[in-house]
Specification:
Blueprint: H1 6-14, H2 21-32, H3 47-50, H4 56-80, E1 81-85, E2 96-100, E3 102-103, E4 120-122, E5 128-130, E6 134-141, E7 144-151, E8 165-168, E9 210-218, E10 223-231, E11 237-245, E12 249-259, E13 263-267, H5 282-289, E14 302-309, H6 318-330, E15 338-346, E16 365-370, E17 373-378, E18 386-395, E19 401-407, E20 416-421, E21 426-427, E22 431-432, E23 444-452, E24 455-462, E25 468-473, E26 482-489, E27 492-501, E28 509-513, H7 515-518, H8 529-537, E29 541-545, H9 551-565, E30 569-573, H10 582-593, E31 598-601, H11 611-625, H12 632-635, H13 662-675, H14 677-682
Parallel strand pairs: 1-2, 3-11, 28-29, 28-30, 30-31
Antiparallel strand pairs: 2-6, 4-5, 6-7, 8-14, 9-12, 9-14, 10-11, 10-13, 15-27, 16-17, 17-26, 18-23, 18-27, 19-20, 19-26, 20-21, 21-22, 23-24, 24-25
Helix pairs in contact: 8-13, 9-10
InterPro entries: SGNH_hydro_sf
GO molecular function: hydrolase activity, acting on ester bonds
Length: about 675
C-alpha cells in the first residue's frame, strides 16, 4: 500500500477531502511499520467519515467485478479499432473502426435546424464527414460505412470559465525547443519553399492542468492553415483542424478545448510569419516591421494562447489523490546544474577590426556591441547566488585584451564588467598574473567568472601548461541578467562556453524573488532569510533574487533555472515593485508545478499604501490554490499585527524602509517555521 506522511494527509483534509477506508488503514499500516510517526490527533476525528463505508471485502469484490468488465470492454474495442484515417489516404480494406484525423466546419449550414451533413469529407470512407466539435468514429463492415458522432460538451466539468488567462508565446519555457525544422533550414536563409515539417507548439510545462481554448496568430497571406493536435504520450497525431485565414491577425477558438496535460498544439508552416515571401528571409521581413529579435526563435507566428484552469473530475477519489501525491513525492527527477553548454568551436567569433561583425550559428547567443569593442551576449538571464560563467579562448594576437561580465536587461541595475589583458598580464588592470601563467600565441586559455555570496573569483588557466591564476574580490556592482564577453584589442576564437551552478546535488528548495529575497542592504548578506532557512534545513539550496525585479523578469529566470534543477520546493517573494496579476501568478505557479515543484507564494513585507492591495491579490491566489505562504507582513509589523510597519525591521536607506535588515530577516525566518512547516518536517529539521 502507498504511504503518506501525516503532514500531507493534513493538507488533503484541509482541502475538504475525506479519506476512503483504504487511506484510513494506510495510516495505521504506516504507523505499524514504524516508518512514519502518525500523530493520533491527526486521525482521531476520522471515524464519522467512515461510518457509511463498505467494508473492504465487499468493496474489493465490487471493484474487481467492475475492473473485469472494463478489461473486457477495452479488449473488444482494441480488437475492432484499426487506426487513424486521413481524408486523402488509401481506402481501408479491413473491417473495423477508424478514427477520422481531420475535422472541420466545411459546408456547415447557417440554419441550425438543417439536416444536411457537413464537415471534412472522407472519399475513402463512403464520403462520410467529420464535424469539428464532435467525437466521431467511422465503422467499416464489408462495403458499408457508418459512423457515430457525439457532440462534445465544452462546459462539462472541464475548465473553470472564470479562470481565463493569456500566455504570451515568448514567455513560454525555452523557445529553442519549440521547433522541429527540416535539416538545414534556418531563419537566416531565404528560400522559396518552406519545410513541410516545421512546427511550433505551446510549452507543456506552463500549461499544466489547463485547457487551451483560443489562439491568436499573425499571417502574411490569406489561405488555409492546419492546427495539429498531437498526443504527449507518443507524439502521434490525434487530429487536424483546418482554419481558413482571412486577415493578417486572426483568432481561432477551439470548439473542443484542448487538455494540455494530454496534447501538444502544433501549427503547420503554411502561411505563418516564419514563412517566406519570394525568397525573402524571415529576419529581413521582421526587421522591416520592427519586430525582429536577434534570437531567431523569438520571431514567432503565434502571439498567445488563452487557457483556463482545469476542474478536477469528480471521479478522482481520495485514494487516487493520495497515490498521485505519493508518486510526486518519490519520483526521481533527472537534474542538471548546467544551464548552458555550447561545446562546439565558435571559430567565427574573431575580431578583424573595430567595426567587424561576428557571426555565429547559435540561437541562444546574441550578437551585440558593448563598451569599447564587439562581442557576444548570452541570451539566458541568470541570477543564482552560486554560479559560474566559463569559456575557452585561443589567442591569435599577443596583445589581446578581453572584457567580460554581465549586461542588465530587466532594468539598468547590475552592470559588471571585468577585463583580462594578455599583453600586460593583468586582471582588471590591477592583479598581475605574469609570474603565474605563460602567455603564448595559439595557446588556449580557460577563463571563468564565478559568483558566490557577493564574492567574485576570476580564474585563468593555460590549457596546455595547466598553469592558472585566481583573483577573488568583492564586486562594486551587482552581476545581473546576461553574461557578455568580447575583445577590446587583439583577437582570437571562443569555444566551449558554459554556465553552471555550484550545487552539488538537486536542490531541496530554491528561493526566487526581487531584492527582498536577494537580501539587498542586509549586512551581512549571508544573514538574509533564504540563507538562514537553507542553512537550518541542512539541504542543498539556491537563491535567485534580482534587484528591482518583477514577475515578468522572474518568469524569464524560472524558464531557465527550474527545468535544470527541479527543486522539491520553490519559495517565491515577488510584487513589491508591482507588475503582479492573478493571471501571471497562476501561470508562474503552473510552470513550477509542471516540473514537480511545490510552490510557496509569500506575502510581501509592509512598505506603503499599495501593499495591502498587493497582498490581497497574493492571498486570493494562495487561498484558491491551497498554497503555503510566509507572512512577511506579519513578521515585519509591530506586535505582528500585519498592518503597522515596524521600521526597526528594515534598513534605513536615506529615509526609505523597504529592505528587511538582519532583525527583519531573522523574524521572517522565524515566521517561516509556522507558515511552511511542511518544508521543515519533510527535511527532518522541524
Amino acid at each position: 500500500m502507498p504511504k503518506i506522511s501525516k503532514i500531507n494527509l493534513r493538507q488533503l483534509f484541509a482541502k475538504g477531502m475525506k479519506p476512503s477506508q483504504e487511506a484510513f488503514y494506510n495510516l495505521f499500516d504506516s504507523f505499524w511499520h514504524k516508518d512514519d510517526q502518525i500523530d493520533i490527533a491527526a486521525v482521531k476525528d476520522l471515524q464519522l467519515s467512515l461510518n457509511s463505508k463498505l467494508d473492504n471485502a465487499a468493496k474489493d469484490s465490487l471493484l474487481d467485478a467492475f475492473n473485469d468488465a472494463l478489461t473486457d470492454i477495452h479488449q473488444a474495442v482494441e480488437s475492432e479499432f484499426k487506426g487513424i484515417l486521413n481524408p486523402t489516404g488509401m481506402a481501408p480494406t479491413e473491417d473495423g473502426s477508424y478514427k477520422p484525423a481531420v475535422s472541420s466546419e466545411l459546408d456547415k449550414p447557417t440554419d441550425p435546424t438543417s439536416t444536411l451533413d457537413w464537415g471534412t469529407k472522407y472519399p475513402n470512407a463512403g464520403n462520410l464527414r467529420s464535424k469539428q466539435g464532435y467525437s466521431t468514429m467511422f465503422y467499416k463492415k464489408g462495403t458499408v460505412w457508418t459512423k457515430s458522432e457525439t457532440k462534445i460538451d465544452v462546459n462539462s466539468e472541464k475548465y473553470d470559465k472564470t479562470s481565463a488567462a493569456v500566455g504570451n508565446y515568448p514567455d513560454f519555457a525555452n523557445p529553442n525547443k519549440m521547433t522541429l525544422p527540416n535539416a538545414g533550414f534556418t531563419l537566416e536563409q531565404g528560400n522559396n519553399t518552406l519545410p513541410a515539417t516545421l512546427r511550433y507548439w505551446q510549452s507543456p510545462a506552463l500549461l499544466k492542468d489547463r485547457y487551451i481554448v483560443k489562439i491568436r496568430a499573425k499571417a502574411t497571406a490569406i489561405g488555409n492553415v492546419n492546427i495539429f493536435i498531437h498526443k504527449k504520450s507518443d507524439m502521434s497525431l490525434d487530429r487536424t483542424i483546418q482554419v481558413n485565414v482571412t486577415s493578417q491577425i486572426f483568432e481561432y477558438v477551439f470548439t473542443e478545448p484542448i487538455d494540455s496535460d494530454l496534447y501538444y498544439v502544433m501549427f503547420s508552416s503554411g502561411i505563418m510569419y516564419y514563412a517566406f515571401n519570394g525568397g525573402t528571409p524571415v529576419k529581413q521581413m521582421l526587421v522591416a516591421t520592427g519586430e525582429w529579435s536577434e534570437n531567431p526563435t523569438i520571431a514567432l507566428c503565434v502571439e498567445y494562447f488563452t487557457y483556463h484552469s482545469a476542474i478536477l473530475p469528480k471521479t478522482l477519489t481520495v485514494a487516487q489523490r493520495l497515490d498521485l501525491l505519493e508518486s510526486r513525492e518519490t519520483k526521481s527527477f533527472q537534474w542538471s546544474n548546467i544551464m548552458l553548454d555550447k561545446t562546439e568551436l565558435l571559430s567565427k567569433i574573431v575580431k578583424e577590426s573595430i567595426n567587424s561583425v561576428f557571426t555565429i550559428d547559435s540561437g541562444i547567443i546574441n550578437i551585440t556591441s558593448i563598451g569599447d569593442g564587439l562581442g557576444i551576449v548570452v541570451a539566458n538571464n541568470i541570477y543564482l547566488n552560486k554560479r559560474c560563467f566559463e569559456f575557452d579562448v585561443k589567442l591569435s594576437d599577443i596583445n589581446t585584451k578581453m572584457y567580460f561580465g554581465t549586461k542588465p536587461t530587466e532594468n539598468q541595475v547590475g552592470s559588471a564588467t571585468y577585463s583580462v589583458d594578455f599583453s600586460t598580464k593583468k586582471i582588471n588592470n590591477t592583479f598581475d598574473f605574469s609570474t603565474l601563467i605563460d602567455v603564448n600565441i595559439n595557446d588556449s586559455y580557460s577563463i571563468s567568472m564565478s559568483y558566490k555570496i557577493s564574492e567574485t573569483t576570476i580564474r585563468i588557466r593555460n590549457k596546455r601548461t595547466t598553469q592558472e591564476a585566481l583573483y577573488t574580490f568583492k564586486p562594486t556592482t551587482d552581476e545581473f541578467d546576461q553574461y557578455k564577453v568580447g575583445f577590446m584589442s587583439g583577437g582570437g576564437s571562443i569555444s566551449k562556453m558554459k554556465i553552471y551552478s555550484m550545487a552539488k546535488e538537486r536542490p531541496y528548495i530554491m528561493f526566487f524573488g526581487d531584492s527582498i529575497m536577494r537580501g539587498s542592504n542586509n549586512n551581512p548578506l549571508n544573514k538574509r532569510f533564504a540563507d538562514l532557512c537553507g542553512t537550518f534545513l541542512g539541504k542543498e539550496y539556491l537563491i535567485s533574487g534580482r534587484a528591482v525585479g518583477n514577475i515578468d523578469g522572474l518568469m524569464n529566470r524560472l524558464a531557465i533555472e527550474i527545468p535544470c534543477f527541479r527543486p522539491r520546493y520553490v519559495c517565491i517573494t515577488i510584487g513589491t515593485n508591482g507588475g503582479n496579476t492573478e493571471a501571471k501568478l497562476n501561470a508562474m505557479i503552473d510552470f513550477c508545478e509542471g516540473y514537480g515543484c511545490t510552490v510557496i507564494l509569500n506575502h510581501i513585507p509592509l512598505y506603503d499604501s499599495s501593499t495591502a492591495a498587493k497582498n490581497a491579490m497574493i492571498a486570493n491566489v494562495v487561498n484558491s490554490r491551497k498554497l503555503m505562504s510566509i507572512r512577511y507582513d506579519i513578521a515585519t509589523s509591530i506586535g505582528f499585527d500585519a498592518t503597522t510597519k515596524d521600521n526597526s525591521c528594515f534598513s534605513n536607506e536615506s529615509g526609505i524602509f523597504i529592505h528587511p535588515n538582519e532583525k527583519g530577516n531573522q523574524q521572517i525566518f522565524d515566521r517561516s517555521k509556522i507558515d511552511m512547516e511542511e518544508v521543515f518536517i519533510n527535511a527532518g529539521a522541524a
